[in-house]
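Chapter review. Work through the record for ABC transporter before attempting the end-of-chapter questions.
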Amino acid sequence: MVIELRDVSVVFEKGTDLERKVFERLNLSFQTSSCILLVGETGAGKTTLINLLDLLIKPSTGTMLYDGIDPFTNPYEFRRKFGVAFQIPERQFFNETVYDEITYACKNFRVPYDKEKILKVLELVGLSESVLKKSPFKLSGGEQRKVAIASILLHDPEFLMFDEPTAGLDLKGVLSILSILESFRKSGKGYLVATHEPEIFSGLFDKRIEIKSAGIVEVESL
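Structure tokens for ABC transporter:
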């Protein structure tokens, strides 16, 4: 799938004293088979770009096209192709148990799953079966991040997006993230990783997007 942003601007609190412009006339194009490193200073707009791509916010002006189609005409159909793990995992939890949290996307997007598939995903992120009955809100920060990642892997998305995926993880957790990305890359699927620690992911990207001041974006092939 080809994602295009044409002259996209994003303005928060428009027309108020708190008005904040993140992007102005942003132009960006990539295929979801790309493996993308997203960098920029804190507050530059990395999370805003992820929210845009996941259709959680609309551009203030400009056009977004997914394979030539306005994705907001059918956001459900396009969002099922994405898996997003946000910077603060707890904010994306809705359910009382880890089991319900991990299977939520599958139920929402009507993707079949079974116990074997769940256990395989848990193994990938370094969690045991015993965690399934626990509350995701009572886990450690590192465990919450692993649950969030497991929840986006189970419905087998076409494109993954991670916002600071290694924050709060021990070495074993970091290695599991690297293994997941490598597996995705070998399968021909893509991902976008926003991080302040790009050196951890050496060799896992074919494209680098840097958001600079005033929302200026530079794209470089690696």
